[in-house]
Specification:
mainly alpha, 2 domains, two-stranded parallel sheet, 50% helix, extended
């Protein structure tokens, strides 16, 4: 039996566009808090251990990804034209921690979503065009 996919999003149109076993409409933060609370009430010892192991694995993967991004930034620092990693690092340095980056280009999405040089995930948003049936 494979893992079940739950898609939580505040916009029902987004949920309808991706395959999931369960689609939930709601604000992300409060919905996740409630799901965690409800799941915690039903967790058993082995389930909790598996969840803890998964959280640790995710932390390790995020750290490895950040190390890889940092290495790529250092290696490409003096490249001409400027590398996307350096551009993100320079922007982060100039704009500070309270900046929000809006990505409107498919070519930069991978760099932004990888976090660039320590860009916090909450600072990145993507603007996508939703196609209507007449497009």
């Amino acid at each position: 039996m494979g893992a079940k996919v739950i898609h939580l999003h505040p916009d029902a149109r987004e949920i309808a566009q991706s395959p999931a076993d369960l689609g939930l409409i709601g604000a992300i933060a409060p919905s996740l808090r409630e799901l965690i609370r409800l799941l915690g009430e039903h967790a058993k010892g082995t389930g909790t251990l598996r969840a803890d192991n998964r959280v640790q694995w995710i932390r390790e993967q995020r750290a490895a990804t950040q190390r890889s991004v940092d290495d790529a930034t250092r290696e490409a620092w003096d490249r001409t034209p400027i590398s996307p990693w350096r551009l993100l690092a320079e922007l982060r340095s100039a704009l500070g921690d309270d900046v929000i980056v809006v990505d409107e280009s498919g070519r930069t999405a991978g760099y932004l979503l990888a976090g660039g040089p320590s860009l916090p995930p909450a600072s990145i948003t993507q603007r996508r065009r939703v196609r209507s049936a007449g497009d």
